[in-house]
């Protein structure tokens, strides 16, 4: 199964290849750049949902962390804080 995800507006000018590189470097998440699927795909990336649910949650946490570092999300809510 795959998710064909539109690149968030603040990153849109990067194109899919540079955004995919950013996800790999900053979020530790590997995606396929949409440009590899044709010229019209450059506004998207493809997530392959081939891992177990724990690894997918880990990827989501990494992406959220990247968004926070870039100022696109607020700090973690109380519900997201790990239990002591």
Automatic annotation (TrEMBL):
Domain of life from the UniProt record: Bacteria
Q: Which GO terms describe its molecular function?
A: transaminase activity
Q: Which InterPro entries match?
A: LL-DAP_aminotransferase (IPR050881), PyrdxlP-dep_Trfase (IPR015424), PyrdxlP-dep_Trfase_small (IPR015422)
Identify which cofactors the protein needs according to its UniProt entry.
pyridoxal 5'-phosphate
User: Which keywords label this protein?
Assistant: Aminotransferase, Transferase
Coiled-coil regions listed in the entry: none
In the UniProt record, the signal sequence range is none
Q: Does the keyword Nucleotidyltransferase apply?
A: no
Record has Transferase as a keyword: yes
PANTHER family documented for this protein: AMINO ACID AMINOTRANSFERASE (PTHR42832), GLUTAMATE-PYRUVATE AMINOTRANSFERASE ALAC (PTHR42832:SF1)
Q: What is this protein called?
A: Alanine transaminase
């Amino acid at each position: 199964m795959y998710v064909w995800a539109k690149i968030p507006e603040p990153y849109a000018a990067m194109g899919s290849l540079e955004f995919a590189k950013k996800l790999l470097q900053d979020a530790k998440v590997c995606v396929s750049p949409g440009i590899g699927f044709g010229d019209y795909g450059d506004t998207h990336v493809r997530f392959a949902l081939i891992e177990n649910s724990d690894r997918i949650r880990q990827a989501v946490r990494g992406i959220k962390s990247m968004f926070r570092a870039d100022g696109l999300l607020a700090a973690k809510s109380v519900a997201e804080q790990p239990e002591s």
